[in-house]
Amino acid sequence: MTAGESIRVYLLDDHEVVRRGLRTMLSSLPDVEVVGESGSAEEATARIPALRPDVAVLDGRLPDGTGIEVCRAIRSVDPSIAVLILTSYDDDEALFGAIMAGAAGYVLKQARGDDLVRAIRAVAAGHSLVDPRMTASLLERIRRGPAASLELAALSEREIELLGLIAQGLTNRQIGERMFLAEKTVKNYVSSILGKLGLERRTQAAVLATKLLRPDLDGATGPGSGT
């Protein structure tokens, strides 16, 4: 996108009232244009790549599928489309699935309208984000146990520490201030972490770490827990 261009948005929600409310809110903004909408996963999967919106706001759960499935399908055709999953469910499994499917953000429907607008603008600008209420849940899992998986074993203790700060949504500059490192050094650490984990987004790295550290049913942690 270039300065002055509108953010082209596509809406997917099986509730017409929700879609109408979102369309009305977004259409009132000078920098947003709603280019299409649908109420089913099948229709959205067919229409979104053709319309090429900047941002697709997808309902998490639909009668004929999920927003995560739609996200994976449309980004396999056009990875330039930023996806924002909008859902009523505070579900760690869905969050993990959304991020690994390539979604740029995951926002709860309980969020304020202004928060959703900021999220749309953020992902349109190439940023990744997760609702802060869900980030807290993810961080708690990271704190509950040591990194025991083979994937995280490839990281140094310093990289594990930095990964936790990435999960908090801190910028490279903020991480540098927290860890007393130069911003360029933090950038190098982030690149190293993503490379070792075989990932592209820093958000994917944080969520993958949480998945790997998931405690088993009795609350203990250890090698292979929850995988």
Structure write-up:
With about 230 residues, the protein is α/β, with parallel strands linked by helices. The protein contains eleven helices and eight strands. It has a six-stranded parallel β-sheet, sandwiched between helices. Strands 4-5 form a two-stranded antiparallel sheet. The relative contact order is 0.10. The model is unreliable at about 215-225 (pLDDT under 50).
List the helices and strands and how they pair.
Elements: E1 7-12, H1 16-27, E2 32-38, H2 41-51, E3 55-59, E4 61-62, E5 65-66, H3 67-77, E6 82-87, H4 92-100, E7 105-108, H5 113-124, E8 129-130, H6 132-143, H7 150-153, H8 157-167, H9 172-179, H10 183-197, H11 202-212
Parallel strand pairs: 1-2, 1-3, 3-6, 6-7, 7-8
Antiparallel strand pairs: 4-5
Helix pairs in contact: 2-3, 4-11, 6-11, 8-11, 9-10
The rounded distance between the terminal residues' Cα atoms is 39 Å
Radius of gyration, whole Å: 18 Å
Secondary structure class reads alpha/beta
Average pLDDT confidence is 79
Essential attributes:
two-stranded antiparallel sheet, 11 helices, 6-stranded parallel beta sheet, 51% helix, 227 residues, alpha/beta
Quick structural overview:
The protein has helices at 16-27, 41-51, 67-77, 92-100, 113-124, 132-143, 150-153, 157-167, 172-179, 183-197, 202-212, and strands at 7-12, 32-38, 55-59, 61-62, 65-66, 82-87, 105-108, 129-130. With 227 residues, it is of the alpha/beta class.
